[in-house]
């Protein structure tokens, strides 16, 4: 938005007016067609258009250039009234220095510096306002540490203020303690549930292991029985072998007689088991060899 034309003293060349807002150019840019605009005006225009607002020639944001130097100089030298004229400032100065003036202008409107005060006063009346502002406050002189509004100083009571704050802090603390207790309880509860689950899992594992152990024990018992039987058989076989060797030795020493071809004595025969038939066969052959 440009500067209000009303504020200018004397004639303002039409070339220094914005083609969008028709006020005096503020932060000016110009198009290739040499029409000039305030920067904010032309940027706003080009959001919805792509032509110069004056002659409708095609225009893109990248075509915009700074104003000619001589025009910038003309603009800077225009005489303008202070924006705080309605507040009483009579200053008139060049456009290029009006900002500097306005920042220090005694008639500039300022917000009251007291928090919460809605009053706007001119810089020159601020001090007077602060003396009477009902939002003025100061730190309590009795040492409670509270900042007290001037208007409430008569009613201020350090003890009751401090007690109220203490009550508030206590309530806050109670609330926090309750929160923490609740959180701890819920955490413990979830841990307890977890432990119960784990315990039942472990119980079932132990049961399964017990079952496996009893199966293994019965296997071991079977194997031990088989081993015992095998040993007994082995011992029996050893005995038979020894007997047979004894027999063979005797046969080898004695001369062969017809009676030799007779079956072995009843004592030996008794001992012959089906398993030793082969050995028995060998014995017979041996005897025959001896007879021959
Ligand atoms: Zn403008
Ligand atoms: Zn144009
Ligand atoms: Zn002023
Ligand atoms: Zn105030
Ligand atoms: Zn106090």
Written description of the protein model:
Residues 101-144 form the TRAF-type domain. GO terms for molecular function: zinc ion binding. The chain is mainly alpha-helical and 292 residues long. The protein has helices at residues 39-48, 69-77, 95-104, 126-132, 158-253, 266-271, 277-291, and strands at 28-30, 36-38, 65-66, 79-81, 92-94, 109-111, 120-122, 137-139, 147-149. Helix content is 52%, strand content 9%. Strands 2-1-3 form a three-stranded antiparallel sheet. The chain has a two-stranded antiparallel ribbon with strand order 4-5. A hairpin with an 8-residue loop joins strand 6 (109-111) and strand 7 (120-122). The longest helix has 96 residues, at 158-253. Residues 1-2, 18, 20-21, 23, 37-38, 41 line the site of one zinc ion.
What does the secondary structure layout of this molecule look like, with pairings?
Elements: E1 28-30, E2 36-38, H1 39-48, E3 65-66, H2 69-77, E4 79-81, E5 92-94, H3 95-104, E6 109-111, E7 120-122, H4 126-132, E8 137-139, E9 147-149, H5 158-253, H6 266-271, H7 277-291
Antiparallel strand pairs: 1-2, 1-3, 4-5, 6-7, 8-9
The structure holds zinc ion (ZN) (5 copies).
Offer a concise description of the structure.
The protein is mostly helical and 292 residues long. It has 7 helices and 9 strands.
Defining traits:
binds zinc ion; two-stranded antiparallel ribbon; 9% strand; Herpes Virus-1; 292 residues; three-stranded antiparallel beta sheet; elongated; 9 strands; 52% helix; 7 helices; mainly alpha
